[in-house]
Structures
1.
Amino acid sequence: MNTEYNFAYLDEQTKRMIRRALLKGVAIPGYQVPFASREMPMPYGWGTGGVQVSAACLVPDDTLKVIDQGADDTTNAVSIRKFFEKTAGVEVTEETAEATVIQTRHRIPERDLTENQILVYQVPIPEPLRFLEPRETETRKMHALEEYGLMHVKLYEDIARHGHIATSYAYPVKIEGRYVMDPSPIPKFDNPKMEMAALQLFGAGREQRIYAVPPYTKVVSLDFEDHPFERGGAQQACGLCDAQDAYLDEVIMDDAGTRMFVCSDTDFCRERREAGHIGEMGMPITEDAA
Amino acid sequence: MQSQSLIGGFSDAPKDSAIAFRVALDVMARPGKIAKISGGTPPEPMSTSAGTLLLTLCDPETPVWLAPSLRGAQIKEWLRFHTGAPLVDSRSEAMFAVGRWSELLPVTDFAIGTPEYPDRSATLIVEVEALENAGAILHGPGIKDTSELALPEVKAFRNNATLFPLGLDFYFTSGSRIAALPRTTKLEG
């Protein structure tokens, strides 16, 4: 740990401001609390909101995991992990079960989270109504009046045009029967997992909003009686670990169009392969592999 | 200023406040859960948990209302020195209020937020004799099935919950123990 930084990088006044916003966010599930987002040593869009929320939550004996689209080993995830290793001196891990705080970009881990874990989402556009109504003054009023008709019109237009609800990520949810919330650009496959035992916190740095979903809170994906929400998901098994019910990434293998599908959650896939599950294109893990 | 006021703050503010906040966040996210919180040592008769919570969350941006029993010169000086929080007489201006339940009544004086900004509401820190998981039955966000918490009364909290998404959020403090009741929690019994 580099002692030239304050613990977890941010100054104390900033952390207090974020902490107060977090508590109000937890008390009003799904409501976007404005906060005075700071410039972070990384560009907007790289998780400045999530990083600020994590910084305000971390304690010295936390174990941090950072994932980007499910993977622990992408530039974004590695950088943020190193950032907190350096500024907060916390332990880091790639194993979902080991982590106490998990910062994520666009995925929820496949493994069920526990009461002792916090999931921090990086959010680009926190306002679910923003692409339907650009004015903040208006969307704020719409939330106040619980006026979400426009969102249903959007989903209806999807059905009129495509025959089904074509929104496949950042699929809007209603929290505890009150606020419509953007779950961040997670695939809609992950939406049903949001009713979980862990606390979920959302940070949008550029848009300066924080919101939260407490454990065991009702999270309903918006739909229609005759067009119920469908989780979607893989039509096949993971090529490496043979998982049947995981969210898969498509990987192009060569110029001839060969493709393979692999788990987007790298830790989940590794764990399964170590347990002896082998997919069609996988091979057993050995000591000198890697 | 009495030198007494200079002591009793966090010994390592960044880490102590981080640990204290995690407890405050955890109990707010799980209404009814009782946890230990410490780090601050406020002058008597303020509890360790209430004092630690104020040190963790208050600064010059947060007007604090102190109940008569906590309005002693020592507590005021301690709070001003360690947090810089302005102490206000008007209950409607307070972002945080601390005191015994009887002193906080009527709680309808405190800010409950506006329909556009329900977060602009007060957090009440209620000093209680003891905290125990018995009494009112709670359910709502953060609670798996139900949980139980002894409350000073039920009606005021039930009324508060009906204001959702507006309303007040409560911490209950006793010694170094703390529990919370956000506006989302519904009460039975």
2.
Amino acid sequence: MDEITIIQFVNAISYSMILILGAIGLSIIFGLMGVINMAHGELFMLGAYTAVIAQKLGMNLWIGILFSPIFVGIVGLALEVSIIRRFYTRPFVTLVATWGISIIFRQLIKMLFGPGHQIIRNPLAGSLDLFGIAYPKYRLLIMLITGIILIFLFVFFHKTPFGLKCRAIIQNRDMSTALGINVGDIDRWTFSIGAALAGMAGAIMTPLITINPEMGLPFLSQSFLVVILGGVGSLFGLIGGAVLVSCCRFFLSFFFRLTTAQIFVFLMAIILIRIRPQGLFGKKIA
Amino acid sequence: MLMKSLKAISLESKIFLIILFILLVLPPFTSMYQIRILSKFVLFAIFAMSLDLIWGYSGMVSFGHAAFFGLGAYSLTLLLVRFPEGGTLVAIAGSLLVPVVLALFMSFFLIYGKVSGVYFAIITLVVSLTLELLCTAWYSLTKGLTGFTPIPPLSIFYLKFDADTTARLVQYYYLIILVAALIYFILHFFTRSRYGLLLQAIKDNPKRAQFLGHNIAGAKTIAFILAAAIAGLAGGLYAPLEDFISPQLLGLVYSTQVIIWVAVGGRNTLIGPFIGTIILVYLETIFSGIIVEAWYLIIGIILVVVVLFWPDGLMGIVSKRIRK
Amino acid sequence: MQAEKDIILLDLRKLVRRFGGFTVINDVSLSITKGEMRCIIGPNGAGKTTLFNLITGDLKPNSGRVIFQDKEITKFNPEKICRIGITRKFQTPTLFSNLKVIENILMAGYGKHKISELLFKKVDAQDINRTLAILEVIKLEEKKDVLASDLSHGEKQWLEIGMLLRNEPKLLLFDEPTAGMTRQETLETAHLIRNISMNLTTIVIEHDLKFLREIGENVTVLHNGKILAEGTFDEIEQNENVKNVYLGRE
């Protein structure tokens, strides 16, 4: 493999890690409550704008990244309490209502910051020499941070009582209620954590992508693909889905333009759902 | 006799006939610009009714219905431009058939694949996004983001239809009203037939319907295909009127707009989406000139409020009043 | 017994169904003759509902065959099985709750129509008359314009029975038709089902012994996915095996 290929490959890995971080909320909430949050991409966007605000206030990106999960998490909490919880038995309604929310967020940001691009300075410019290949320091750091968060989440989801309850609800919501699990509390916290992580993913990505009020939509569609391909409600599925989406994108882009590559990934998802509705890595739904 | 037959007409159709009458007598009192946007409103209203057929009547939420609208617009345009010998009728047939082929393909994957609920919404969205990308990428066929302009007029017999002269535009306007009336009455009989009842039953309890012998996938597919054809026709008629089409027509923007129109107007009625669309698009043309961003913010708020407090939309509010 | 001249309507041959490693239906063979009324009893988890799911095509057996009117229907899908004449009542009332009572019955009547017979065709007077006749049988004439969701539990069960009748099956499957009913309702339902079964072949899953005594003629006892005993209610009541696993616990 030549240097460019390796760099592309590492890019794909780092992109998929960000994708996992962002899509995790969407997937877990879908598994937990059976609803899709159409405003999830806007949570990502709000995270990015937290970093923009931090920079405008003269603070550096690290503080922005630190504040983004807190701010977006609170937004998520408010969203869950005011809208989502009323509707988790009616997924269609949630779909439409959260689309309304996503419009509101997008327009508010447009009114506050204007429709144009924002630019965040890369706080960690330059590259690091790894096994003879120069790789941007910031991307390496992203991989490190998201890796740590994912390990933390994995432990949280599989080793703590909270995680156990979460998984119980994903398996069987009614039974969990009957067993005395406070389903409402779990929903609320999970939604907030999912929102916080999407926000953080948004902030972390700011030096690498274009920031504008519409940035949530492509992110949302990527997250959908992750969920469709990976299946619902399991971390492994999510990781598998994200790796698949980003690797396909990057490797197909050797042969085609990015748009064409994207079309192939979309088509793959559509065909897959006919063959394996539970996703590539999901368990079969009875 | 007349009174008796008037009574037999449903309230919904009476309202529609009144709107139709108003639309018919309006042209002498309006400017060319107004006729043009009115035509657009009516086309969007047809588009909204077609979404309601699958959403309100059959319970399939599509987040990608613009795929059919846009495909209709592109099919008609490409046929007119690249295959002018075929003439207008071939182009219109194309705007009906190409979306139907897509709908058949999607039915095989989604309806016969038993993809339901939220997945259905997401996959339809993905289809719409894919087509938008495809249209953007395939420059040699579609001219990509530049879009197509100008678009040749439709010509049926000796009449020409587009927005170039007042006479042609007025003709076009009446053609669109005629199509709207036709589609309304087709859908009216469609939804009030035994088959319409079957769709309601399937939406309500697919398992029971299946265990009474009903072919659920078949019934849903027919509704889906009819909706695709109607959306395609509306899109096809939109192209020469607007004289410009771009990949946006197939994508997320229009797919979600039409959801808002239907949600606000009121699902499960035909007149609801029709009126909802006309009101919202009218307000949009007024306000978006003055306060662009704020208008879309208001739309978002309206959508959330309607879904939260008036799940049956405007028609829900009105029909409750009438019943009281 | 007059088995020689009776026609076998439904024949289950060596049905096996496993879930994971657990065998829910284990080598079940069962013949139902035309005009018969068969009761299936057995403790919870005996595989009664699974048996119905296998007959109606909701589940496919791992091995074995389902023969209906001398035709193999093992691989048919549920709507096709319904169309050739097997209709089922679910354990909990399974209705179109947002439709009116009369519309529920109408939909049952259209079950075997082709879609082309439904498209653009209005509900006609004949449909209505047939529906009203059914409503009379299930005593819901006065509630014909009520939404199904607004009925009482017993009325819902009766509405579903009415729908099944309108569906005009050759074989009717009842999965615990008296579940959740009051004593009075149970008696009335038993009476209704006995009337129905005079002209129809029926299979009834039931727990309620009073109900069985009321209507039970041919009884099959399922236990752990196997047939434990077959016979009349009196024979079954005397059967030692049955007493041990099932009746003994009552």
